[in-house]
Design goal:
The structure is a single chain. Helix content is about 25%, strand content about 20%. It is α+β, with helices and mostly antiparallel strands. A hairpin with a 2-residue loop joins β4 and β5. It comes from Brevibacillus brevis (strain 47 / JCM 6285 / NBRC 100599). This is GNAT family N-acetyltransferase.
Length: about 140
């Protein structure tokens, strides 16, 4: 039988994490209560198996790729979750992945997108220049 753990019991599954999941920021954020999600286990008292439902708050991904160059796309889905650091956490995990795999991340945004400019600066990106954008 499968049981949903109460959030204050999420830490019980830490010993079940595989080596590749021990440092997974999304799973750790769910366990710590900073990201939405649910954890289901076979035994509430002594779990031997766990399923982590990763209901995303923010996502950061490569929206355009050319060889080892990756353009960043980041989004926080609900307005109520904005300005709480979720996009920063998602981007930090993405940038860590890039560094571990020899990828070069790029941050491009409209200068009128103040939130994106602020986040890019916070993450260490520097402005290189301007380019014209054509919309149709």
């Amino acid at each position: 039988m499968i049981h949903r753990l109460e959030p204050n019991d999420y830490a019980k599954i830490r010993t079940l994490l595989s080596p590749e999941n021990v440092n997974d920021l999304t799973i750790q954020a769910i366990i710590n209560g900073t990201n939405r999600g649910a954890i289901f286990v076979d035994d509430v008292e002594q779990p031997r198996t766990a399923l982590v439902d990763q209901t995303g708050v923010s996502a950061c991904l490569s929206c355009c790729v050319h060889e080892r160059d990756h353009e960043i796309s980041v989004e926080t889905y609900e307005e109520a979750d904005m300005n709480k650091g979720f996009a920063t956490l998602a981007c930090a995990a993405y940038l860590e992945h890039c560094m571990e795999h020899g990828l070069t991340p790029h941050w491009t945004t409209l200068e009128t997108n103040e939130e994106s400019v602020r986040l890019g600066t916070k993450l260490g990106f520097e402005r290189k220049g301007k380019c014209k954008i054509l919309e149709f």
